[in-house]
Amino acid sequence: MLSDITLGQFFPGNSVIHKLDPRFKIICIILYIAAIFTASSYLSFVLVALSTVLIVALSRLNLSIILKGLKPVVFIVLFTIIANILWTTGEKPILEFWIIKIYPEGLIYAFLMALRILCLIVSTFVLLTYTTSPMALTDAIERLLSPLKVIGLPVHEFSMMMTIALRFIPTLIEETEKIINAQKARGADFESGNLLTRAKAMVPILIPLFVSAFRRADELAGAMECRLYTGGNGRTRMKVMKAKPMDIIVLVLFLLFLCSMVAMRITLRGVI
User: Could you tell me the residue range of the domain that residue 101 belongs to?
Assistant: First the structure.
C-alpha cells in the first residue's frame, strides 16, 4: 500500500540523532555519503554496514519504519543487482545459459552495490527526514548556504522550496492512494494487461493528482500570503541554532570514518 511509504515523513523522538544540530546532520551525511562511495574492500563495506546499523539503533526508530521507507527503491536495488550480475565478467563462469554467463565476481559486485545503495538511502533518511522536522531542516539549509547571499542567491527561498517538496511527498502519496481506490471502486483495472495497457490505465490517476497538487500549491501560497510571508529578508527565528559539544564530537567521528575509508582504499585491495 502506498500509505505504508514513509518517504519524507518526520518521526519525533528523544534520541541522540534527534537532538543533533540539523546543520551538523547535513554535513555528517555528506561526509558519510563520501565514505560509502569511497569503500572498495570487504572490510570497508563491513564497517559501512555496521555503522549504518549503529545509526539506526541510535535513532531509536522502529525497524518497520525503515523497511517501509525502502519500498520505493526496491525496483532500483533489484535492477542494480540484475544488471551487475549480467554485465560483470570474470575468469570462470559458474552458470552459462545461451548468451548469459554469470561469474562469481558479478555476484559479489551486485551484492556490494546493493549494500551501498541500501546504506546510502537508510542513513540519509534516518539522519535527515526521519529525525529532523521540516522547519529545522529549512533553517539548517539556509544557515549553511547563507554565504551565497553575498552573490545575490535567494538562499531562504531555495531552502523553503526544498523543504516544502519533502513535506508534501507523504501528502501526495496519500492523495494518490485515495484516487486509486476511487478509480477501483468505479471498475478501473490497474493490474491486468501488458505494459502499454497499464500505462494507459494510469491516466485517470495522473490527471486528478496533478489537479490536486496545483490546488494544494495554490492554497499554500494563499495561506503564506495571509500570514504576510515576504521571504527571508528581516525574518527572525523562534529557535536559534547553537552548536553543542555532542555535535562537534559526532562531526569529528564522521570525519574520522571518511578518513579511515580513504586509508583502506589506498592500502587494501579493492573488490569494486
Answer: 2-267
149 with 155: CB under 8 angstroms? yes
Strand partners, 96: 101
Please check whether residue 157 lies inside any domain of the structure: yes
Q: CA 33, CA 262: separation in Å to the nearest integer?
A: 13
pLDDT tens-digit series, residues 186-220 = 777 777 767 677 777 777 888 888 888 888 888 88
Residues 44 and 264: beta-carbon distance below 8 Å: yes
Distance, in Å, from the CA atom of 126 to the CA atom of 11, rounded to the nearest integer, reads 10
Q: What is the pLDDT of residues 123-159, one digit of tens each?
A: 998 988 889 887 788 788 888 888 887 887 778 778 7
- For residues 233 and 210, what is the distance between their CA atoms, to the nearest angstrom? 32
CB 261 within 8 Å of CB 35: yes
Per DSSP, 13 falls in state -
Q: Of the candidates 127, 125, 130, 86, which has an alpha carbon nearest to the alpha carbon of residue 109?
A: 86
What's the Cα-to-Cα distance from 210 to each of 22, 96, 215, rounded to whole Å? 32, 47, 9
How far apart CA 21 and CA 32 sit, in angstroms, is 16
- What's the gap between Cα 108 and its chain centre? 25
Q: What is the distance between the alpha carbons of residues 42 and 39, in angstroms, rounded to a whole number?
A: 8
Total domains present in the chain: 1
